Request: fold
Amino acid sequence: MTVGLIAMQLFSGLALGAILIMVALGLSIIFGMLGIVNFAHGALFMVGAYAGLYVASLTGSFWWGLLLAPLLIGAFGMLIERFLIRPLYGRSPDDPLLLTFGLGYVLVEAVRILFGTEGIPFSTPAELRGVVNLGFGVFPIYRLFVVGVVVAVLVLLWVGLEKTKFGLIVRAGAADPTIMRVLGVDIDRLWLVIFGIGVAITALGGVLAAPMRNINPEMGTLVLAEAFVVTVIGGMGSLGGAVVAGLLVGVAISMTSLFAPEMATIVMFALMAVILLVRPNGLYGRALPGQ
Amino acid sequence: MTAPILSVRDVGKQFGGLVALKGVTADFHAGQITAIIGPNGAGKSTFFNILSGALRPTTGTMRFQGADMAGVPQHQYVHRGIARSYQITNIFPHLTAHENVRVAAQAFRSRFDIWTDRARLAEVSEKAAATLAAVGLADKAGTLARNLAHGQQRALEIAIALVADPVLLLLDEPTAGMGPEETREMVGLIEKLASSRTILLVEHKMKMILGLSDRVLVLHHGELLADGTPAEIQANPEVRRVYLGQSDGYA
Amino acid sequence: MTRKTGLSAGRGVTRRTALAGIAGGIGTLAMPWVARAQNDTIRIGFPTPLTGPFAAEANDQVRSAQLAVKQFNDKGGIAGRQIELLVRDDKLNAGEAATRTLELIEKDKVHAVVGALSAAVQLAVNEVTRARKVLYVSISQSDSINEAKDGSRYTFHEALNPHMTTQVVAKHTFKQGAKVAHLVADYAYGHEMLRGFKRAGEEIGVETVAEVLHPFGAAEYSTFIPTILASGADVLCISNFGRDQANSIQQAVDFGVKEQMQIVVPVLLHNQRIAVEPDVFEGVVGGANYWWGLEESVPSAKTFNDAFRAMYDGALPTDYGAYGYTGVASLLMAMEAAGGTDTEAVVDALEALKYDIAKGEQRYRQCDHQSVQSVLVLKSKGAGDMKDEADLFEVVANEPASEEVLRSCAELGYTG
Amino acid sequence: MTITKAPTLPAAMAGDRFAPILAGLSRWRVPLSLLALCVLPWVLPSQALAVNVLIYGLVAVGYNLLFGYTGLLSFGHATFFGAGAYTTGMAISHFGANWFVAMVAGVFIAGLLALVMGALAIRTRGIYFAMVTLALSQLVYYTALQASSWTGGENGLRGFTVSQLDFPGFSVNLLDPVEKYYAIMVVVALALWFVSRILNSPFGAVIEAIRENETRARACGYNVERTKLVAFVLSGLLCGLAGTLSAMHLAIVPLDSLHYHTSGLMVMMTLLGGAGTFFGPFVGALAFLSMEDVFSLWTSHWQIIVGSIFIIFVLYLPRGIWGTLMALGRRP
Reply:
């Protein structure tokens, strides 16, 4: 148990945290802004990975896949919102949760029909292969790249939400849609775009994770659990919360892996249970309406 | 003068930095109708929530029928004899009007009995039917609460509180959103109720309050501005300046 | 060879796999397996996980099993009775498998059951069959099914078990005094493989320097790899199954583990190898029950491959697919010897059976009905030295069938 | 999250053409469901499926007591189903207990777990309540995975096959599918009658009031937290009972019975059938399991059909199969 190993473990924990943030971001945006619990989040993550694979195989370049797949699946997400989610606004908050539960089934099976049931290779792009020596240990370049993309997406989101007019409308729309409707803002179109952005980010997560975890129709199920744990610990609807929670869970998993590696997944759920019992709305979550 | 059934000493409430209510002291005697008035944000609802146990006061004490209410859980208040209706209609939408009132009445008869058929609690059901009739909803017993008209829902709101046969009945803007005809009916009902119990109500309709209540409390910025008979309140210059506006007001 | 992006190098354009996927998918869509049970046909129940992560292996097993049935039907069946395979989807779920097996026994009145692809599922099927004295031939890896508390007169195990696989693989990869690290999936099957490797390691005299248990079905291994790299091991044994194997090896390679230590797996899974790029598995050594490359040295492998190619237009059987063939074929041979479907007679015939139908001499051991069979040790080829897309592995060794690699009957709880 | 779902309580509706039928339905709901159960094994493709419908129907009805009637969406009820099954199995295989004692122990342990999980979870509300129950139930799942010497870990629990139930004067052969079906049906029928009593009891009125409007229920003098906890434990006991029956039926306890996949299954069945109705969950279990059984024979891609049907129901028939039928019956 050298200091180098602990430092390495902490670093890989933070890197894992970045991946967990990426995985949870789409879910947190859609719930935070629209109050919708998206149980098809894992399936959309997987569909994103397949889209990245398909575009990369057509264009022959990983980078086109990374760029186009999120846009394609984001548009697909808008279709989902327009035809499946919009009729549910105003109804019981369970309905979107249950619809997306069924949607998850459909998406996974559709991919099985189109791409077959066994895993398909999607290798790390040549430029990002290999490891870099951090002094206290080696770390894959590709994972550093992923951390970089996550940071970029977070900065983009922060600037977009906090600094632009559109961001102001989005945040106000999330806070009180009725007043925004009165002020003449086309709420339906706004929610369409938000849902699209959430799904696009989820798909981006899929494309980024593909080289690390091989692509298969079932890769979404574990991601759904990870995303919920991070989103709930952070506090539903708080993007800042999701970032802190992602890093917290990442480090917790990596430190547990030093002493009791088999407990790595159990610690995720234990952390969520403890935090929810101490702070019933997560770290930064605002109270639910009617609380 | 008999001992007050409700006495409030230096009651105050703070939400973080915001002081919603400060230093309210008053005694309330049996059989009296007391109105609580004041501009929006004066602390009326906060005071009402404290009296009905929905909020814990930050400072001060509240004694009801001689007992200190500190630490009493909210669901015990109605069993001690304090019932309230709500400003925003707060009923059981998908239950029938009769069931709305019956379930409130049942709280005094049994709460954790998972065996006997509730239809067998005949007197609870009859009491609910009687209370529904008292508020004029006898013919609507079988209708789902959410299908009732606004005025009928307000009446149901009061029936749910009334069926508990409270000693102290707190009515939060009972005539909110009602037309003149319905308001007159509601005032008649309140007068009938007052014969056997103490009533506190929050209202904005001045003519109704001055005609109906024996006593008026005026709250302003969370403080008790005035406490007296309707006549004294109308004459009080401080109240006129703050609440009834400069010149005309109600002569 | 200029390396285009990893995607298309060495695998042909991936579009082809996508189109193949579509064709394959629509094929399964249109081919229902519903076969109402006629009265005199010999019915064999075949629970297998058509949905879920092992759907590919399940499909391979169904195709091989149907080959065995076709071969016997073409010969006029058994005692004039045609044979029928009743395939049911057990969704890789033990509860589902038990229900499907109950249906097969109670409604379809099957004469025997073959199948199941995970330890938990086969033990569930076994619990239902042995209580009702129905013959069951299990065709996937598990040690528990050999033990007395789970075994029964009507239970046969045609697959390799973790113990025999790890003994043979260790024999060809561990060197005396080598430092060995273990990355193990934390569930029954993982522990069985670890126990096998450590027992073999003691006999050969290696030093275990790290033992990392990872959660079953984990997708992230980055937090486990630093400990392994820090252990300075020469050999890393990765004992897990299915997608865990592909994910853990992929991420180990990302961290440059292969430069420092030889990666060894108890079972080199065909479908996991083709789920990643060739360079990921390059140099990894592992055990296997079957590899089509055996046809150069084993005549029965050649006949099996040719029959498979003929029936499935040039396709080749995979490791788990072969189990489907050897499991069903050995059962049918026993039925033929017993001249019918009387369970007691068929059990006796199976116990006495000597068969060589795909990979050399095989027979069922008396006490725990484990099929004593050869164990292959394979090494995964790099993209460079693959003759064509199917040329995945080279044969390092083909350990002949013998009981030494099996746990003794006494140790398994069979007395006398 | 308090669900302001339109419960289609079969309470008598004044002035509707079908009112007498609905009134009859509600008063005679238990004998009617008993009749339906008797016919089930001969209507469905196989007795094994029929027994599963019984067991999952009971699980859904037990779960609906909390979800449809009290308005609490829990994602951790697999814990009680699994605990009931595991305790029964372990009592027989490790302690050699007789089957009746083992089943009683199973229901008791499930109730105990429900008391602990309920006490912790009821401090939260809405989606957080669902997440706390999910997290706590996953902890139980991983504990069972680790304690493999007791639970058989990933291989599931085996070795407690009960082939015969002995009663004074007669005995039931569990290996015979028909005898097994009717033995389990008797237990399920008793449980249905018990649930019907609860829903008709004063307590039944209180939990519905809490579903409708928690704050007003508290103002009416009900201890909301304690009532929710009692409902949570009752629902846990019923799911535990279903778990013990599942152990007797399959003679194995798969680890999957504790996984949130099973919790999700309960939610789906209850909503497909119609939350907040008495028959709904049972109809949901019947529909879901039959669809799964039949479709999986046609194609290995049956999940796309089940998923699509579920989406259609949520969009156009939110009251579920039975709820919609009830609503049609009411509208003149």
